[in-house]
Amino acid sequence: MPRNHEHPLSEAMDRRLFLKRTAVAGAALGLMGRGLAQQQPTADQVVQGKNPKLVVLSSRPVVMESTLELLGSERITSKANLFVRNNIDLPGLNTTEPNVQPGWEVEITGLVDKPFKITVDELSKLPQTEVTTVLQCSGNGRSFFNPRPSGNPWTYGGVGQVTWRGVLLKTLLEAKGVKLDPKARFITMNASTQGGAQPYEKSYPISVMEHNSAMLALGMNGEPLPAVHGGPVRLVAAGTFGTANVKWITKVEFTEKESSGNEQVPRYRVPVLPGWNTPILPTQPGSRYNYTLDNSRSNWGANINSFILSPLPGSSVRGRLVEIRGVAWNDGLAPIESIEVSVDSGTTWRKAVIEGDHGKFGWYRWVAPRLLSPGEYEAMVRATDALGRTQPLNGNIWWNERGYEWNGVMRVKFTVT
């Protein structure tokens, strides 16, 4: 019988069946929606106290990056806006609140004449030093390599400027009357394995203790060290990438050789020519590399870099006088002497005005006023320091399969109206 001649009761039953099925489908979609939301949580859902505008790259272990807008809004990057790159998960520490553990112990051992252990409470009573540094993941900018290497797809947000407070390693050794063996060449650090966390062991040259203000940090930005950023104690070495600033430190060992652990090799290394320590060996984009202690170096020392923080990419600005602003930084071994800006895609360059710095390990803030007619522009920036180190126009020349140490010239397109 045609549908328009069906019994009214049948039509009512069909309507009820349709509504029931619609409700079930809606519930299923709701569950799927909640599932998607769980797969893509906001930063504040992953780490209590974080700005929800941070971009979550991984929920476990926690990896999240800041944005150019947030970085340009503060002179010192707040704990809410600072990126997170954790290699291990410690239970209960995904918060920006302090991790208060006065009895937490750090063991000082290895090539020292008197090994010892010291608690956070004891450290807090020793002379404290403050240092402002640029903290940056060595994979920051990885997404700009072509082809894109493996690993978290960092853009520009794996960086920030913070002020640390703590006890310098050399101050600690002096206070304890401890002497180093002349054979000691590396500082080897171990993070906590509480809660079944995987071991995390890193080494870098002992010279950073003398020149880079290596410290056992207890505070950040005038507050106790946040749990997610390594509280209660973190080893901070100014002028180095984040991988060398080990969180939740439990042991500092002075060693003759660098660690052979997984976090030292093959991870966090770049290719070099045999016998060379500084340059990256150019490798064919897309190729593989067998990383060893002999044919590569650990990427612990930060390279020179600079960002444009205003105007933001894709933005429109009014008026003919446009102030292009940003920051530059390096490893602190030499002052940054020149910051150049181009507004015609690199055809011509003019020096920016360096407005000031936050110490040799911090950001150099700069401004480049330009008279610009209405139209579309591409601004570029590059920094050069007293050692002649600068940024390549094409960052891809240093392509490496793990995507470390990107410092290619930044390009920002904007419109003047």
Which term fits the overall shape?
globular
Give the spatial strand order of the biggest sheet. Answer: 5-4-13-8-9
Low-confidence blocks of residues: 1-37
Radius of gyration: 26 Å
CATH superfamily of the largest domain: Oxidoreductase, molybdopterin-binding domain
Structural class designation: alpha+beta
> What's the β-strand tally?
24
Number of helices: 6
Q: What is the ordering of alpha helices and beta strands?
A: HHEEHEEEHEEHEEHEEEEEEEEEEEEEEE
Q: CATH first level of the largest domain: which class?
A: Alpha Beta
CATH topology of the largest domain: Sulfite Oxidase, Chain A, domain 2
Q: Could you tell me the mean pLDDT?
A: 90
Taken as a percent bin, the fraction of beta residues is: 25-35%
Secondary structure layout:
Elements lengths: L7 H32 L3 H4 L8 E5 L2 E4 L2 H4 L12 E2 L19 E6 L5 E4 H5 L4 E8 L22 E10 H7 L10 E6 L9 E5 L1 H5 L3 E6 L2 E2 L9 E3 L12 E7 L13 E3 L24 E3 L6 E6 L5 E2 L3 E9 L6 E7 L7 E2 L1 E5 L6 E8 L3 E11 L24 E7 L1
Parallel strand pairs: 4-13, 17-24
Antiparallel strand pairs: 1-2, 2-3, 4-5, 6-7, 7-10, 8-9, 8-13, 10-11, 10-12, 14-15, 16-18, 18-22, 19-20, 19-23, 21-22, 23-24
